[in-house]
Amino acid sequence: METKTNGSMDTKSSVENGQLPDPSHWAVADVVNYFKATGFEEQANAFQDQEIDGKSLLLMTRNDVLTGLSIKLGPALKIYEYHVKPLQTQHLKSNAS
User: pTM, whole model, 2 decimals?
Assistant: First the structure.
């Protein structure tokens, strides 16, 4: 993942090549860009509003995503199951080795 001139990471390229990125150093803008790039453009604003950076994203529980972000249940479930949980799992695996 490349660092852009504004200090944020290039999250879109890692989504496109099928690899899960490590969000532990992402700024809030990187989290927002990640969810926009994965098709959750409307819901990405909730991460901005709640100031969720990469470290916060890795700490989020299912309940945080479903109730704390004030987004509709359907997208919230997909965001947690298909994005937040896999990112957390990948992060834990990469730090365990």
Answer: 0.81
